[in-house]
User: Fold these one by one.
Assistant:
Number 1:
Amino acid sequence: MSDALTVVVLVLVAAAATAAVAQRDPARQALVLSFLGVLLAALFTVLQAPDVGLSQLAVGSALTPLLIMLSVRKVRRRGRSKEGPE
Amino acid sequence: MHVLPYLIAAYIFLTGCYGLATSRNLIHAVGCLAVCQSATYVLLLAVGYRDGGTAPVFSDMRPGSRPVVDPVVQALTLTDIVVGATVTALLLALVLQIAKRHGTIDPDELRELRG
Amino acid sequence: MNRLRLVLLTVGGAGLAALLVAACLRLPDFGGRRHPYGDRAVHASLSRHTANTIASVNFDQRAYDTLGEMSILFAAVLGCVVLLRQAGDERRARPEPAEVARPVRRYALLVLPVALLTGLYVIAHGQLSPGGGFQGGVVAATALHLLYLGADYRALERVRPLGVYETTDSLAVAAYLVLGTAGVLAGTAFLANTLLPYGTFNTLSSGGTVPLLNAAIGMEVASAAVVLLAHFLDQAVEIEETTGERTEGAHER
Amino acid sequence: MNGWILAATVELGGAGAAALWGVTTGPPARRVIAQNLTTSAVCPALLLLAQGYGRPSYVDLALLLALLGPVGTLVFARLLSDDLAGDSPSAWALTWAAAALGAAVVVALCVAGDPGRATVKLLVIGALLIGGNLIASRALAGGFRGVAGG
C-alpha cells in the first residue's frame, strides 16, 4: 500500500522532470519547475522527510520561479530596448 | 521496488544532463541544472529510507515507539536545497551579465562571437 | 560541429547511464533495515534533549558542515551583488505605480503578516518540529515580497532598507562564528554543544546551543534571500541601459 | 496501510497527472491555470498523509504550501501579464471544484480528529488554501491589467 504511493509519486516526479527539460521556453519551463518543486515536496513527505519537504516547498514554490521569471523579464526588456533605436 | 527509486534518480539526472547539453538558452540551462540537483535529493533520501519508518522528529511521538528513517541524509539534503537555490541565483546573475555584455544568451551564438 | 556534439553526448550519456545503473544495483536495498549512522545520530540527539534529530545533526553533530554551507550561501549572495550592481552605462528608471485588482491587493496585505509569522514560527520551532532556520528564513523573505506582487515595487522599497539586510546578513554569519568560538573559549572544541544546559526535552529552550545557531541561520538565510531578490528586482524593474553606443561597445569588451 | 493513505494516493495520482498534463501542453493561459491548481491538488494530499502516518507535525507542510502556493501563482500572473493579456485565463468551474475538494478534505479531517488546537490549525489551512486559490484565479483572470513596467 505504502509502496503503491511511493511508486505513483516517483513516476510523477520523473515525468515532471522530463517535461521541465523538454520545455525550451524559459517562462514555460519555470511553470513546470514550480510544479516539480511542489511534487518533490510531496515525494519527500512520502519518504518521511518533512524537514526536507518544507525546505523544498519554501524554495521551489515561490523563490525559484520568481528568480527565473525576473531574469526572463530582464532579458526580454533588453531585447525590446535594443530594437528601439536600431 | 528495491532499486526503483535509485533508478528514477539516475534517470532524472541523465535527463537534466541531456537538457543542459542541448539547451539553446542559458536560462533554460540553469533550469535543467535545477532538475539535476533534484535528482541528488531523491537519491540521498532514498538511501536513508526504512520500510515502515517515520521521521526522526519527536515533538509528537515518544522516542523509540516507532522505527525511524536516517536523519543524516535528510540534514544533508535540506541545507543543500536552500544553498542550491542561491547558487541558481548566482548562475542567473551570470546569465544576465552575459546578456548585457554580448547581447545574446544562446550558447552557440556566444561561441561564434568569441571565435 | 553540432553532430559531433550529439554523438559525444550520446556516447558519454550511455556510459554514464551504464555506470549509474551498475552502481544502483549494488546499493543497499531501498527501505532496508540497516542505518548505522542514522541510529547513532538519533541516540546522540536524544541524549542532548533535541526533539528534532535533523536539527541536531545540522546544528550540533555536524555544525561544522553547516558552517561550510553557510559560507557558500554568503559567497553566492556576494557574487550576485557584485554581478548585478548598477554599471556605469546604466540608469535607473522609476517604475510606474501598478494598478492591481483590489481583492488581490487585499489578499497580499492580509497574507503578508500571516506568512511572516509562519516563517518566524518555523524558525523558532526548528529544534522541536519539522522546520528550522533554512526553511523559515526563505518563507519570511518570500513573505516580504508579497508587497511587490500585491502592490508595486516602490511599496516594497519603502519597507526594505537594503543596507540593514546586508548588515544583518553579515552579523548573522558573525554570530554563528562567535557561538562556535565560544565553545573553544569554554575549553572544549569549535562549535561543540557544551556551552549551555540541555534543558527539558521538547521545550523551546532545549538542546543547548542548537536554538541559537538555528536562529543565526534563520537570520542569515532571510536577509540573504531579501538581498538576492532585491538585486534581481532592481535589474528587472528599474535598471535600464542607456541606449545608443551600446551595440558597438558590446564586442570590444 | 489505511484509508487515509489510499485516499492520498488516488488524489495525488489523479490530480497530479492532470495538473502535469495541463502545465506542459496548450497555450500559456491554460498552463498557468494548471500551475494554480497544483496547490489545490497537492495540499489536501499532504493533509491526508499527515493523518495517515499519524504525525500531526507533518501538517506544517500543508500550511506552508497553502501560504506559498498562491504566492507562486501571483508571480506568474504578474510577470506573465503581457502574455496572458490576450485571452484572460479563467476556469471557474475547475477552481470551485478544487476549492470543494480542499474543503471536503479539511472537514473530513476535522471530524476524524479530536477537537482542539489541531482543528483550529486545520481550519486556518483550509481558509488559506481556498482563499488563496480563489484570489490566484482572480489574479490570473486580469488582476494585473494595469501593470506596465513594474
Number 2:
Amino acid sequence: MTVLQMAALTIVALGGLAMVATRDPVRQTLMMSLYGLALAALFFAFQAPDVALSEIVVGSVVLPLILLLTLAKIRGEAR
Amino acid sequence: MFYMSALAFAAFFVWGMLRLPAFGYYQGPYGDVINSFVVFERHATDAVTAINFDYRGVDTVGEEFILFASVTGVALLLRERRDESASEERARVAEGRAGQTSSGVKVLALAVAAPSALYGWYIVSHGQLSPGGGFQGGVIMASAAIFLYVSGEYLALRHMNPISLLELADAAGAGGYVVVGLAGLIASGTFLLNVLPLGTTGEVDSSGTILAISIAVGLEVAAAFVLLMMEFLEQTLEIRQRRRV
Amino acid sequence: MDVLVPLPFAVPLLVAALLIGLQSHLPHWLNDLIAVATAATVCGICCVLLFMSTKRPLVYWFGGWVPHQDVAIGVSFAVAPLGAGLASMVALMVAAALVFSIKYFDAVGSMYHGLMLIFLAAMSAFCLTADLFNLLVWFELMSATAYALTAYRIEEKGPLQGALNFAIVNTIGGYLIFSGLGLIYARTGALNFAQIGRAVSSQPADSLVVVAFVLMAVGFLIKASVVPFHFWLADAHAVAPTPVCVLFSGVMVELGVYAVARIYWSMFATAFNPHEVSVRAILVGAGAVTAIIGGVFCLSQTHLKRLLAFSTISHVGMFVSGFALLTPLGLAGSAVYVLGHGMVKASLFLCAGILLHRFQTVNEAQLHGRGRDMLPTAILFFAGGLALGGLPPFGTYLGKGMIEDAAVSHSYAWLTAILILASMFTGGAVLRAGARVFLGLGEPDEDPAGAEGKEEQPESRPTGRTPVVMMAPACVLMGLGLAMGLVPGIAPRTEVAAAQFMNQAGYSQVVLDNAPTLQPTGEIEPAGPNPFQIASGFGAAAGAVLLAFAAVYRQRAPRAVCCWAATWLEPPLQRLRALQSGDVRDYVTWLVFGTAGLGAAFAFLLR
Amino acid sequence: MSIYPWFVVAWLFVVGLWGVISSRHLVHQILCLAVIQSSTYVLLLAIGYKNAAAAPVFATNPPTVPAVDPVVQTLTLTDIVIEATVIGLLLSLAVQAWKRFGTVDPDRLRALRG
C-alpha cells in the first residue's frame, strides 16, 4: 500500500465524518463536492480512472447542483 | 440502543473483513480472465467499458432503466397539476432573471457550453478505447445545458419546449439499448450478442455493439440529467414567481 | 426455444420506453390496452418457461459469453420452475392491477403504465437471474420504481411519509447486499451463483462467508419485511395506490423470501451443512416471531389497508419459517403458500380499493354497515378472510399444511401451533372487518372520525355502481386462489421442483458444465393433500371465525374478561404499537439492531 | 497496514448510519445515505486492487501487463449511477414534503402524523 493511497483513504474517512457532522445542508452541499473530489482522488490512486471520472461528474457536478436547487426551493419559501 | 447496535454491527462487519485477502493481493479469477481476453475478443482497449456494455451488458440494461424510472418518477412527483398559465408566468420570471446575468459571465458560460458538449460526445464515442463511456460523456453533455442556463439562455432553451423532446430522447436511448439487445436475439437467438463488425483495435469504430450501446446510453443519460435538472429548476422558478406576486 | 428467456424483461422494458416516450400522442384506452397486453404476454411466456424447465433449469448466457476456462465471464439466467412460477404470478398480478386501474384513477398518464411495466420487468428478471450482481441490479430497479409508485398520489402527509420511510430503509438494505456481495467476490472472484457456490463449498464456512451471508440475507429480509425490519411495510402500504399495494403485498415482499432461499441453496448450503441445525433454529425463530407479531398487529388495526399489510407480514413469517426448515417439503410448502396467499391477498386489496372508490375511506369504523348492498364484494371479502384462515380448498391451506408436516417431521411441532394461531389472527381480522363493514354487526364505534380517519385520500371519483373492470380482476384472482388447492398433483410436483432447487452441486453442474438433468436432492416426503392438512385448515378457519365473532361483540363480553384484557393485554399492545412511530430514524435503529442481533446469533452458533 | 482500508469501509458505513438516525433535516439525511454508499465503493475498489498493477486500459500497455480487476470497477460504476438517481428521487420527495407541509424536519413530519 502506497503513501498516496493511505493519505487518500484517511482523507475520505475524515471527509465522511465531516459530511455527516455538517448539519447545515448548504455547507453540506459544498462538503459533498469536496468529498466527491476526495473519492475521485482515491479512485485514481486505486487505478480506476473510469470510476473516478464518473465520481467527479456525479459527485461534484450533478448532485451538488440538484441539491442546491432543492435547497433554493426550500429556503426560498422559508424566507 | 443505536450506539450499542452500531458497535456490534461494526465489530461483526470487521470480523468478516479480516478474512479478506490482504489489500493489494486480488486473487481473481474473473478480472484476470477478462483482462487477458478483452483486447483479443472484443477489440476494445478499455476493459471496464467492455464489461459494462458487453460482457455484463444486462446489468447495464437494468442500470439504465433505474435512471429512466427515477427520472420518470421525479417528473411524476414534481409535475403534479402544473398548469399552463403558471408555466407562462414562470417563463416571464425566468426572463427577468436572465436580464440580471452580467455579460462577462454570459460570454464565459456560452464559451464553455459548446466545448463541453463536444467533449462529452468525445467521451461517449471513445469509451471503448480510453476511460469514459456513455455514462460519463452523457453527464458532461448534460452539463453543457447547465452552462446554457447560467448564461441566462435558459429562456431560449425553454421556448423550444424541450421537455417532451427530452423525454423522447430519454426513452429512445433506453429503448435503443434494448433494441440492440433484441437485434442479437433476432440474428442468432442470443440477447445482446454482438452483431456488428469488430473493426481494428484502437479505432473509434472498433468493437461492434459497444459503440452503439455507448451512444444509446450517452443519449439517455444526457437527456435524463437535463430533464432531472429542469424538473428541479421549475420548482425554484415556482417560488420566485410567488414571491413576485 | 431458449429465445424466450430474455423476453420477460426485454419486452416490458421496450414497451415502457415506447409508452413514456410517446406519452402525449397516444389515446388513453390504447395505453391501457398495450400495458395489459404486455403483462399478459409476459405471463404466458413465463408459464411456457415453467413447463420447459421441469427436467433441468434453462441456462442462458447473455451476449453468448459462455464460461471460459471454467470461469463465468458473462451474466446468465437459470430458469427453474420455482423462479418461473413466481415470475408468471408477478405478470398475472401486474395484469390484474393494470385492469383494475383503468377506471380507478381519474387521469392516469402513460407514466404510470410505464413504471408498472418497468416494475414487472425488474421483478420477473429478479426471479430468473443466476448472477449475484445482476440480482442486485434488478433489486435496485424494483426499489426505485416502487418508491416512485408509492408516492404517486401525494395529497396528504401520509403518502409522503410512507414513501420516504420505504425508500430510506430499502436503500440501506441495498447497501447491505452490496457489502455482502463485495466480501463474497473478494473470496471467490466470481459473481455467478454456481461458481461462487463451488468456491465457497471448497472449504468450511469461516467468518467472511458468515458475514457475507448475513449481510445479504438481511438486505433481502428487509424487502421481505421480517421483524424487526418490517416497519416500512405498513407505512408504504397504507399510502400507496391500491393497485400498487396489490403488487407489493402479492409478490414484491415474497421476492425477498425467494432471494434468501435462492442465495442460500445456490451458494451457502454446502458450506453451512455442518451447522444446519443452528441455521434452521435461527431462521425458523425469526419466521415464527414475525408470524405472531404480524398477526397481533393485524388484529389491532382498523385501517383496512394497514390491516392487510400486517397480515402480509404475518404470512411472510410463515413463508420464512417454511423454507427455514431446510427440507424439500418445507420449501415446497412455502412456494405453494406464496402462490395461494398472493392471489387471495391481491383480491382482498382490490376489495379494499373498491370500498375506497365507493366511500372514499377504508376506515373500518367509518364504513360500519355501509357495505350492506355490495353483495359481490362482500362475498369476495369473506372468502378472502376464510382463505387467509386456511379454509380448504383454497391454496393457502395446502401450503400451510405442507409446512406443518415438514415441521412435525423435524421436531418443530410447535411451529404448527404458531401457523394455526397466525392464520387465525389474520383471517379473524379480515372477517371481523367484513362483518362490521358489510353486515353492520357489532356496535358502531363512538368516534368514527378516529385518528387515522382522514389519512386516506380519494384516488378516484365515486360512482354508484362498481365498474366491471374493478370487480373482474378481484373475482378472477380469488377464483385462481380457490382453484389452486384443487389442481391435482400440485403438492408433489412442487416438492420435486423444491428438491431440485436445493441441489447445490447439481445446480452448478447444470450452469457451468451443461449437465443434462438436475436430480432432486434430500428426502422426499409424502406431500399431500392429506386429512391432517385438511383438518388443520378447517380448524384454523373455524378459529378465525370464532375470533372474528369475539372481536365484533367484544363490548358484550363479561366484565371480568374485559378487566383482565385491559390489565394484561392492553399495555404490551400499546407499547408494541408505539414502536410503529412513523419516524424513519427509529426504523433504521431497529434495522441496525436486527442486523447486529442476527449477526451475533450466526457468529455464536457457527463459530 | 493492509487492513486499513477495511476499517475505513466499516467506519464510513457506521458514520453514515449515525448521520441517518441523528438527522434533523431530510436533505441532510439523504446525503448521509450517500456516505454509506461511498463505503461500498471503497470496499469494492480496494478488493480489486493489485500492488504495482496498472489501470485496466490497454491503449498503450499490452494486455500482458498486470492490471487491476476491471470487474469491481464496473460494479462501482453501476453503483454510482444508482446513487445519483436514487438521491434525485429522494430529493424530489423532500421537495414534496416541503411543498405540502412546510417542513423538512423529521420530528415535525412525525408530529404531523397524528
